[in-house]
Amino acid sequence: xxxxxxxxxxxxxxxxxxxxxxxxxxxxxxxxxxxxxxxxxxxxxxxxxxxxxxxxxxxxxxxxxxxxxxxxxxxxxxxxxxxxxxxxxxxxxxxxxxxxxxxxxxxxxxxxxxxxxxxxxxxxxxxxxxxxxxxxxxxxxxxxxxxxxxxxxxxxxxxxxxxxxxxxxxxxxxxxxxxxxxxxxxxxxxxxxxxxxxxxxxxxxxxxxxxxxxxxxxxxxxxxxxxxxxxxxxxxxxxxxxxxxxxxxxxxxxxxxxxxxxxxxxxxxxxxxxxxxxxxxxxxxxxxxxxxxxxxxxxxxxxxxxxxxxxxxxxxxxxxxxxxxxxxxxxxxxxxxxxxxxxxxxxxxxxxxxxxxxxxxxxxxxxxxxxxxxxxxxxxxxxxxxxxxxxxxxxxxxxxxxxxxxxxxxxxxxxxxxxxxxxxxxxxxxxxxxxxxxxxxxxxxxxxxxxxxxxxxxxxxxxxx
Length: 465
Prior knowledge:
Blueprint: H1 3-51, H2 55-60, H3 67-82, E1 90-98, E2 106-111, E3 139-140, E4 145-147, E5 150-160, E6 166-175, H4 176-227, H5 242-281, H6 290-295, E7 298-303, H7 305-314, H8 319-336, E8 340-345, E9 348-353, H9 363-387, E10 398-402, H10 415-429, E11 433-436, H11 437-442, E12 450-454, E13 461-464
Helix pairs in contact: 1-4, 4-5, 7-8, 8-9
C-alpha cells in the first residue's frame, strides 16, 4: 500500500473516530438535557393543573354517579386538551387519593379518558409503579414507566385543601412514543450534522492526500527513471519543504550518474575504437581475404542493451542482480575461449581473440565458438528467468564475429556503432550469431555456417547459425 494511501486511511479513520466520539458525547448530553426539559414541562403541567382542582369537591367524589365527578372529569379534559402539542402530547390526566388498602397506597378518583375500555373509575386501584406518587411535592419520573396501558413519562402534583394540606394528587401521562419522537428528531439532526462534518473531513483528507501524494509520485517516477538508466530527471516540485529538497538531491544524484555514465561510455568507446583501429592498422590484419582472417585477429561483438533494458523494465528490484548475472555470463563465455574484453559498457561488449603474444591461427574459430557459447548460456538464463516469473517475454541478445577493419575506428561507425546495431541485425535476420564472410570461410573446416543476407549498409556479407 502506498504511503499516501496510508495517510488518507489514517486521516479518514481519525475523522470517523473523533466525529463518532464527539457525536456520542454531544448526543448524550443533548438527550439528557432535552429529557430533563420534558420532565420539567410535564411536572409544570401537573402543578398548574392541580391548582384548578376544587379540593373540597374532589373529596366528595364517591362514585361516577356523584355530581362532583362529572365536573371533575370536565376539568381534567380541559387540562389534557390544553396541553396537547405536537412535540409533547398529553395522553392521560387523572386524580388519585390515598387508600391504605391498596399496595400502591392510592386509588383513582377522576380520569379524563373517554374510552370505556381505558377509563379508570373512582375507587379503582392505582397501579404499583416503580416511582410512587407523592402528596408533598410536584414530581416527574426520571425514567419511563410501564403499566397495563403502555409506557409513559409521568408527573404528579399535590391537590391541596383550603388549609394547604395535600389531600390528593393530579397525574399526567405523556406517551413514551411522543417523547421518543422528539429524541429521535434530535438524533437524526445530530446524525445529519455528523454526516456533513464527516464529508467535510473526507474532502479535507482528500486534499491533504493529493497534496502529499503528488511529490511522492513525482519522486517515485524519477527514481524509476534513474533505475531504468534514464538520468534526465526533472521533478518540478517548488514547494519549499522536505519534498523539494529531496527532489533536488535526487536531480543532483541523477546528473552525477549521467555524467559518470557518459564518461564511462566515452572511455569504453575510445578504448574500443583504439583497440580495433590499432589492430586494423597492423600489416596483413586489415585485409579482406580469408587467409588474413585465418592468421590474424577476430573481434566478437555482443550487444545486450535491449536485454538490459527489458530486465530493468520487467524485473523491478531484481533487475540489477539479473543484469550483473547476464554480463558475467557473456564475459565467462568470452574468457573460456581465450578472448580478452577490450571495451564494455551498457550497449554491449567488444572482445579480441588473438593479438600480440597470442597465437592467432585459431582466433576466428575460438571467437565463433565463444559466440555460440554466449548465445547458449544467455538463452538458458532467459528461459530460467521466465520460468521463475521474473520476465514475461524472452529478451534478445545478438552476437557477431568479424575481422578488424579500418572503418571500425571512425567515430560512430566504429565499435560503439557496431555494438549498437547487433541486436537489430540479428533479430531482423533471425540469427543469434552472425559472422562476416571472411570469418565464415576461415572456420569452414570446423563449423559450417549458412549465408543469411547482408547488413543494412551493405558493408559486409553476414553468415549465421
